Amino acid sequence: MSRPELQAPPEIYYGDTEAKKYTNNTRVQQIQADMTYRALELLNLPPDEPAFLLDIGCGSGLSGEILDEEGYIWAGVDIAPSMLEIALEREVEGDLFLQDIGQGFGFRPGSFDGAISISVLQWLLNAETSHPTSSPPHRLMRFFTTLHSALRNPSRAVLQFYPTSDDQIQLITSIAQKAGFGGGLVVDYPNSKKARKVYLCLFVGGGGGAQVPKGLEGEEGMDEDEDEKVKFEKRRQRELRREKSGKRKEVKGRDWILKKKELYRRRGKEDVPRDSKYTGRKRKTIF
Ligand SMILES: C[S@@+](CC[C@H](N)C(=O)[O-])C[C@H]1O[C@@H](n2cnc3c(N)ncnc32)[C@H](O)[C@@H]1O
């Protein structure tokens, strides 16, 4: 089966049926979550400071859910109404916009502290929208130029995508550069067929210092078992990093939970649990 972006324009491919299938697939959920955590790590935001992020091609909110969990405020854009509809149903916290990123963003300059994009950029290289207005290079140029302006200086954007050739990588990186970005490519597990992942790590005004981060390493010519080891190793490294940065998911307080329940009731949600004296109690520490 060929890659989705070769089959149909995105808003057609992600119609009602595919959008549901995609969102409910546990393997997809796991992969999107893993890549979102990695993108956040590459964003390298200062710990314990609030940040407003842009999720480019947010889809049904699988990546957005991780942003919620990690305590970020975010806005998401996507071209597929069916995907956004599911994101709304799933009550993600981010503000959602129906938009073709190939036409560029209209956000105020410097609006975002960072941007992520998971499994989207390859769509700009292939099937266009159902109303194509210009060629992939023109669409990429509009996308990168307006993204650069929407980000504050300094900051970063991390875009995971699936290139199928070096020419595609060359085209994307050269246009990003022309739009004013620094940075480069981070390739994780370059020698594993399954685990290999490509992240375009873009810097605005130096991206908050430092060089392009190194990709995660794996063994050459891995077989199935070794891919399993990579998965385990990735999870272990992620947990270690989260522990080190002190960014464990916080236990929500009583006030936060009551406010959220009130919001759901106002929105007409039916099965909101009643408030009780146990709502939002502190997690017990066991020594
Ligand atoms: C594989 S899904 C990823 C969704 C989301 N990032 C996640 O973590 O689940 C790719 C998404 O890119 C969106 N997309 C593709 N081309 C787009 C475009 N030109 N403008 C906006 N969104 C686009 C699709 O509609 C789809 O929701």
From TrEMBL:
The keyword Nucleus is annotated on this UniProt entry = yes
Q: Which cellular component, as a GO term, is one annotated location?
A: nucleolus
Q: Which Gene3D superfamilies match?
A: Vaccinia Virus protein VP39
Q: Where is the 18S rRNA (guanine(1575)-N(7))-methyltransferase Bud23 C-terminal domain?
A: 202-285
Segments carrying the region annotation (Disordered) are: 213-251, 266-287
Is S-adenosyl-L-methionine one of the keywords UniProt gives this record? yes
Q: Which InterPro entries match?
A: Bud23-like (IPR039769), Bud23_C (IPR022238), Methyltransf_11 (IPR013216), SAM-dependent_MTases_sf (IPR029063)
Which BP terms in the Gene Ontology apply to this protein?
A: rRNA (guanine-N7)-methylation
Keywords recorded for this protein, A-Z: Cytoplasm, Methyltransferase, Nucleus, S-adenosyl-L-methionine, Transferase
The entry sums up its family as follows: Belongs to the class I-like SAM-binding methyltransferase superfamily. BUD23/WBSCR22 family.
Query: How is this protein named in the record?
Result: 18S rRNA (guanine(1575)-N(7))-methyltransferase Bud23 C-terminal domain-containing protein
Origin species: Bondarzewia mesenterica
